[in-house]
Amino acid sequence: MARQVPPRPHPGDDPAYAALKARIIARTGHHYYIDKDELLIERLRRRFRATAVADCAAYSVLLADRSRGEAEWACLEAEITVGETFFFRYAEQFQALRQTILPALIAAHSLDRTLRIWSAGCSTGAEPYSLAILVREALGDALPDWRIAILGTDISVEALATARAAEYGRWALRTMPPEDRLRYFTRLPPAPGIRREGGYALRPEFRALVRFERGNLLSLIEPKTPPGEGYDLILCRNVLIYFEAETVAAVVRGLGRRLRPDGWLLLGHAEPNPTFSGFLDPVSLPGTVAYRRLADAVPPAPRPVPPPAEPEPRPRPVEEPRVALETVVATLAQPRPPAMEVAERSSVEIVAADPDAPAGDLARIRALADAGETGAAWRVLRGALAHDPTDPALRFYEGLLARTLGRDDEAERALRAALYLDRGFVMAHYHLGLLLIGLDRPVEAARALDNAIALSQALGPNTLLLEGDGAAACEIAAGATAARAGLGPERGPDSGIGSP
User: Fold this and answer.
1) 154 is a catalytic site residue
2) 114 DSSP β-pair partners
3) Distance (Å, whole) CA 416 – CA 351
4) What is the spatial distance between Cα 63 and Cα 58, in angstroms, rounded to a whole number?
5) Angstrom distances, CA of residue 108 to CA of 54, 103, 117, 148, 230
6) Which terminus of the chain has a lower count of CB atoms within 10 Å, N or C?
């Protein structure tokens, strides 16, 4: 039975909280927290513990301190900024970069042979490094003749330190097929701290193309700020969600002013707004929308690609063996060996799962895992599963975290449990396929990926997938198809949607 914990005090119980919250939003622009008091106060409490202050009033005094305030602001900004990121996030946008945007930029700069790229709000560096990989592959042997400058900026000093180190756990590489990991990274041995499960270091040839600086996007809307040197490509994805609409429009306008002639701007899938057309031209590309300066918005011809093969008939669902629900529940609820010997103890306070807020558990699990606190995420997950062992989303995250911790057998069991509970769980099929590729079981991997492809294609292309990190159905279909192509034509005896 989960241990009982006292109820948390409501943020409104601290008389200084409202003023502190307003001050944080004014400084950071994080309007995201305007209706998320519980989340903000939890993150504030972490800083209270770290700085040994008692309450919001004392913390406000610390932030105003001339000698220590700016350093604490940097720590707080890192704490309240969700650092969720992974390599090649949003496959359709990276496909547009490969097929249309980068070829167009390379052709436009064939004489001066320069490319300037900016990843604004780069978090821990997965996005600018993904761009470095793409640029290096696009230029090939011609790379030494080009001057490439890829800049990553973020408000979080802590995130930038991680980015400069260029070392990542499996979580940041969770959608990458194993063969690509070997091409772009070297394997790191287990070590004390957050890499007790081992990790991956980006190869030097990709790191060398990227530099990082601290920057606040709100500086873009200050009228006295000069535009500076322009960029050929700017990515600002999943950052604008923090800001209110008026600030978003001003930031995007500032980004547009920093585009060079023939430059391109990419935003997150949820961030485009019709008001942008007043100062930028949207360009429709397969699976995404890009923006250009108003005078530059004639879309170039995409790089020729071979015509797609004749699509195979969509697999039909197959019947699975009938098992009593009571048996499944009993099996899933069985205690498992503790996994925490492979992850460090976190400073984050872990409490029993709130029975009234399962969505809150998922949000905490994601946030902790994204911050590299795998052990803390695992503990929250185990508490949530003790309350509801038949939640497919929790089983899905059990699979992802177990894989991150190097427990592949446990990861497979959890992903298969998620699929038993929800046969249409696209992301569980997809990640099971990637796991099975890594375990050198190509027939089973192909079947899992075929299921992910079929289920994705049955949805609208822009349908956001459950637990897909903002990915649309078309993106996962493309990613699963690419991973499936490396497995050859072999298929299992039954290729319908079901248990792989």
Assistant:
1) yes
2) 147
3) 28
4) 9
5) 58, 9, 14, 14, 15
6) N
Reported pTM = 0.60
Q: Are strands 210-214 and 147-154 parallel, antiparallel or unpaired?
A: parallel
C-alpha–C-alpha distance, residues 421 and 331, integer Å: 13
Which pLDDT belongs to residue 470? 62
What is the distance, to the nearest Å, from the Cα of residue 16 to the centroid of all Cα atoms in its chain? 34
Sheet of 210-214: strand order equals: 210-214, 147-154, 114-120, 231-236, 259-267, 288-293, 280-285
pLDDT at 358: 42
Q: Is 43 in the active site?
A: yes
Indicate the SS3 state at residue 211.
strand
188 touches 167 (CB < 8 A): yes
- List the chain residues with pLDDT less than 50: 1-8, 194-196, 297, 299, 305, 308-358, 490-496
Which residue's structure tokens are 């899905």? 396
At CA 227, angle to CA 225 and CA 232, rounded to 5?
150
Each residue's pLDDT tens digit, 376-417: 788 888 888 888 888 898 999 898 888 877 788 888 999 999
Are the CB atoms for 411 and 181 separated by under 8 Å? Answer: no
Look up residue 366 and give its amino acid: R
The one catalytic residue among 47, 116, 154, 196: 154
From 43, 364, 395, 447, active-site residue: 43
Which string of DSSP letters, residue by residue, matches 66-100? TTTHHHHHHHHHHHHS-----TT-SHHHHHHIIII
Measured between alpha carbons, how far apart are the two ends of the chain, in Å? 33
